[in-house]
Amino acid sequence: MSSRYPPPIGDNRQRRILVIDDNAAIHQDFRKILCPEPTAPALDALEEAVLGARSSSMPLASPFVVDAVLQGQEGFETVRRMHKLGRPYALTFVDMRMPPGWDGIETLEQIWAVCPDIEAVICSAYSEYSWHEVIRRLKRPGLRLLGKPFASKDVLEFAWSLTTRWLATHNA
Amino acid sequence: MRLFWKTFYVSLASVTLCTVLLTSLITYLEAAYSLSRLRAQERLLAVTVASQIDVGYREHVWPFEMLGAIGDEPEFVSWQIVDDAGRVVLSDRPVARELNEELRRRAPSPDAPVRVRIGPGTEFWIVPLHVGEGHDTWTFRLGYRTDSVVTQIRGIVVTNALVGFGLAVLLAAASLLVMRQLLRPLDAVTRGARQMAQGDFTEALPDGLVSAAPSGLAAEGGDEIAELVRGFRVMVASVAERDAKIGEHLESLEKARAELESRVEARTSELRRAKAAAEAAASSLQESETRMRGIVEYAADAIVTLDDRGCIEVYNPAAAEVFGYSAQEAIGRPFQSLLAAEYVLSLATVSIDVERGGEHGGRDAAIQSAGEIRGRRKDGTTFPMQYSLSRAQLDERQLFTAIVHDITERRRAQEEVADLHRRLVEASRLAGKAEVASDVLHNVGNILNSVGVSATVLSQKARQTRCESLVKATRLLRDHEGDLTAFLTEDPRGKLLPILLEKLAETMNDEQRSILGELSSLTHDIDHIKAIVVMQQSYARVPVDVTEAIALAEVMDDALRIAGVTSWSPHTDTNTDTDITVKREYAPGVRAVVDRHKVLQILVNLVGNAKQAIQAGAARRGEILARVCMEGPNEVRVEVLDDGVGIPQENMLKIFHFGFTTKPNGHGFGLHGGAVAAKEMGGTLSATSEGPGRGARFALVLPAIPPPRASRGIAQEHLR
After folding, report:
1. Residue ranges for chain B with pLDDT beneath 50
2. CA of A59: which chain B residue's CA is closest?
3. What pLDDT was estimated at residue B717?
4. Å from B424 to nearest chain A CA?
């Protein structure tokens, strides 16, 4: 897994990600994927001293900071608050169906109204809208869609590519 | 003439003014001259007397003689000698004190002769005297009258004025006379002309003028004016004569005209009466014709009239629109060519029949028929149309009128409504399924997600495990098997090896705990999925029923409407779009405690079957009888009867089998489902038929109170 991490690209800035999903288990899933527990570094050094270099390279500390909320409205408030505090999110994963509050589309419409450059991934197991409908309503070709159940590699890919894109526009 | 008076007055006034001014001037000059002469005379006298007095005083000889002589002067008034204190020393008569005071005040002590005017017409010369002791303040006063001069002058003035005025009057009178004589004839002519211009000839004859004119002027007169007057007279006379003649002519003409007019009027009224009678006769005819033409021309429906051979005589614009033929093309063409091939126009029965139907002998009496057939357009396409055909007897021939309405749009709309309805029903059915499916997918999807993540985490942890390090450490120990003590106590790596082993044990312990935790969460997720599947299965197996006491007549009515055999409108009973008559026989107050929707579903199915059974027949028309009644004390009976195609005996039992159908598009679920539902409610669904073509009867018998049931399944809320 660590082998898929690209080499650090100059900046060690945190990549802030917000997960908006009505299921707390999904929050855990995202955290497990994006922020794996680091191995004990003291032991690594000891192993190197006694046994020589390890065959596999060490996993790096995760650059992702993952926050999670249960409702669309809550997510919108969080995005706005962090934007004001100067710690904006680069990416948000939004569930499509979050009863009883806003659905994913409405949540994203509201978020983009205050924070238009945040990258977004819509994810859902089942949607009342077709993907075409979602894209047509949100009018964002850059929007990514993630079907549930999702594969870890897809989540990682989205997280890396979209936060990198976000960082690139915010470095410039 | 007015101008004359103006000039006259002006000249008179100016002459008078000149005279007065001149007279006044002369008088003034005259008076001034006379006065100054008088004053000079008197001054000379006064000075002379004064010098005589001076001499006389010095030589003591008073000139009395001279003083006495003054009194003889014609203008003399008085004289005084006054001393320095103003006292009168000597005078010819007593002097009034006021006069003395006045004179003294006006000329106190003059050193030269001074003239003083006292009152109107009296003046004094006051001359200083050189008498007395050393001072000369004595004075001599000589009074004289001036009014004589003034009177004299006034006389001259009056004379002058009188003479001037008289002269002016004389002149004015003379000029007045002359001008009158000059201008009066002219004035008369002018007046005459003006009157003629106003058309008055009798008054304009200037006889009066001529007679009033000075003799000799008008009659034989010498000057131009007289000639003018004469000419004028002649002209006026001739004009008057002509006028009279014209008047006569006019009068006779007028008479003739009046006569003619009265004749014309008499004739006109005769004609008018005749015309009114004719019009009254014609107008009602024309009005009705115009109205008819208007109706035909602008009718929204196609209107065509046919002669007794069935050829088109009248063809309105709406018809042209419907059939595509223009009026020129259509008139004379047989109406049959506007019908689709399978229809035949039959003028004898006044109807349009389907060719293969063949039998229309029984409808001879009809003088009007109507229905829905298919028409044919110019381009050969056929279309559904509604027609009505009627016959009228005109004198000795027959006239047929066909009114045609293109119902393509209506048909299409009906089909669309039906289609929409079908899709709606389908969609709502699918929505029910979709609701279940989406819930399941959402729940299962989320859990599967966690499962997948857990699996990934587990494999990753397994890959990162420290087993490899343990193997390497063990190998290291084996390599130094011989000198293990030295290796562990002296080798720098060997000294660290126990610590490494200890740490590895700890870490692997942690790893195991973490993997066990992940595995337990995985197990938990899988259990969750299992629970959802079980719940879903139990939901599908145990139907939810909601029972209530319902009035079966209402449900029956709803079923009739939903099946489309009665209208939704409460005012019309039979749906005009189908040829199905519905009869109802409802016993009052029949109620049952059942699931309303299940009963409705069964009844809709039964009514739908009845409708299709009727429409499958050759006549395509028939009757449905809906009946609701009690079946014994504890059961209710709902029946649907039709006179449709009926059920063959061999099918009587199969019709309730799952998947059995006689309809081309049927799926064979309806009656099966109905029978199952009836059984679930503790009732029965049965069918009877007397054979093909003789209709069918379906009866749903239900308990009025449902039987006690086993406890219900899992509540559906668990699912979410």
Report:
1. 204-205, 208-220, 357-366, 539, 541-545, 570-572, 709-720
2. B464
3. 35
4. 18
- Mutation target vs B (from A26, A37, A51; most B CBs, 10 A cutoff): A51
Nearest CA in chain A to B474: A51
Residue B224, token pair as written in the block:
């131009």
B660 with B654: CB under 8 angstroms?
yes
* Helix extents (H) in chain A: 24-34, 41-51, 72-85, 104-114, 131-138, 152-171
Task: Reduce the DSSP state of residue A37 to 3 states and report it.
Answer: coil
DSSP-assigned letters across all residues of A55-91: SSPPPPPP-EEEEEESSHHHHHHHHHHHHHHT---SE
User: Which chain A residue lies closest to B465 (C-alpha atoms)?
Assistant: A39
| A14: confidence class by pLDDT, cuts 50, 70, 90 | confident
Question: Residue B311's closest CA among B293, B338, B348?
Answer: B338
Task: Quote the Cα angle for B41-B44-B46, to 5°.
Answer: 110
Interface of B with A in 479-518 (CB under 8 A): 493, 496-497, 499-500, 503-504, 507, 514
Contact residues for B637 (Cβ-Cβ < 8 A; gap 6+):
B627, B628, B629, B630, B631, B699, B700, B701
Instruction: Give the per-residue pLDDT at B203.
Output: 52
Closest CA to B638 of B591, B576, B693: B591
- Is the minimum CB–CB distance between B295 and chain A shorter than 8 Å? no
Distances (CA, A) of B593 to A95, B634, B681: 45, 11, 9
In sequence order, the 6+-apart residues with CB closer than 8 A to the CB of B237 are B205
Which residues does chain A have within 8 Å of residue B503's beta carbon, measured at their own beta carbons? 40, 42-43, 46
Distances (CA, A) of B210 to B183, B186, B196, B213: 13, 11, 17, 5
Longest dimension (CA), chain A: 60
User: With an 8 Å Cβ cutoff, are A46 and B472 in contact?
Assistant: no
Residue contact A47–B453, C-beta within 8 A? no
Chain segment A113-162, per-residue pLDDT in tens: 988 889 999 887 655 566 677 777 777 767 788 877 788 888 999 999 99
Is A128 within 8 Å of B438 when comparing Cβ atoms?
Answer: yes
ipTM of predicted assembly, 2 dp: 0.72
Separation between Cα atoms, residue B356 and residue A22, nearest integer Å: 70
In angstroms, rounded to a whole number, what is the distance separating the alpha carbons of residues B417 and B414?
Answer: 5
> Are B316 and B302 contacting, i.e. CB atoms less than 8 angstroms apart?
yes
As a 3-state breakdown, chain B gives helix, strand, coil percent values, each rounded to 5, of: 55, 20, 25
Locate the chain B residue with the closest alpha carbon to A152.
B453
The answer to whether the pTM exceeds 0.95 is no
Q: What is the pLDDT averaged over residues A68-75?
A: 92
Rounded CA separation B639/B685 (Å)? 10
Inspect the interface and report whether the beta carbons of A25 and B449 lie closer than 8 Å.
yes
Q: Are A46 and B499 in contact (CB under 8 A)?
A: yes
Beta partners for B387? B371, B404
The alpha carbon dihedral of B118, B122, B123, B124 has a sign of negative
Q: Which residue type occupies B281? A: A
Amino acid at B467: C
CA distance B417 to chain A (A): 26
